[in-house]
């Protein structure tokens, strides 16, 4: 298994669809690491820095250790297209090692509600899923802002994140496409 997989090598999926006023990003991938060994990485908010592209200059500002539980507040600083942004999230649900939910209280989105789920797989790995309901700032212009800027950026961030997770925790390669079947000659 290559130590530097590309997104195209992974059995991973990212999709974005419009749902009323919001957009729904869904990302899933399977890693070879068991759930009990994987979840502690995600339980440390500081590890989000390792899963975020360097161009964003993402930094957790909340002092360590962060007591992860419902109501925990986490402050970040980042740059989006060179613009400095402060971001505050609240842990809404904390259900280790299976799920947690964070929501933006202050930041670049009108809404950001992110559900992380982790499910053991029969072969001892873990299925990781992200479900993000978001709406960019911009009021009535949000659909245009999303189309030309936000959606592409968010998908690229999750592609980066998917590769970084695969590098740290092993990955399931994308299945080779099935060969086209040959027509059966008539008898």
Low-confidence stretches: none
The CATH first-level class comes to Alpha Beta
Secondary-structure element order, as H and E?
A: EEHEEEEEEH
What is the fourth-level CATH superfamily? Answer: START domain
Alpha-carbon Rg, integer: 19 Å
Q: Give the biggest beta sheet.
A: 8 strands, antiparallel
Head-to-tail CA distance between termini = 45 Å
Helical content (DSSP H or I, runs of 4+): 10-25%
Tally the helices: what do you get? 2
- Categorize the overall geometry: globular
Mean pLDDT: 93
- Assembly of the depicted chains: single chain
- Beta content comes to 35-45%
CATH architectural name: 2-Layer Sandwich
Number of domains: 1
In the CATH hierarchy, the third-tier topology is known as: Alpha-D-Glucose-1,6-Bisphosphate, Chain A, domain 4
**How many DSSP-defined strands?**
8
Order of strands across the main sheet? 1-2-8-7-6-5-4-3
Descriptors:
Alpha-D-Glucose-1,6-Bisphosphate, Chain A, domain 4, eight-stranded antiparallel sheet, 20% helix
What does this protein look like?
20% of the residues lie in helices and 39% in strands. It is of the alpha+beta class. It has a single domain, classed as Alpha-D-Glucose-1,6-Bisphosphate, Chain A, domain 4 (2-Layer Sandwich), CATH 3.30.530. Strand 6 and strand 7 form a beta hairpin. The longest helix is centred in the C-terminal third of the chain and has 28 residues. The mean pLDDT is 93.
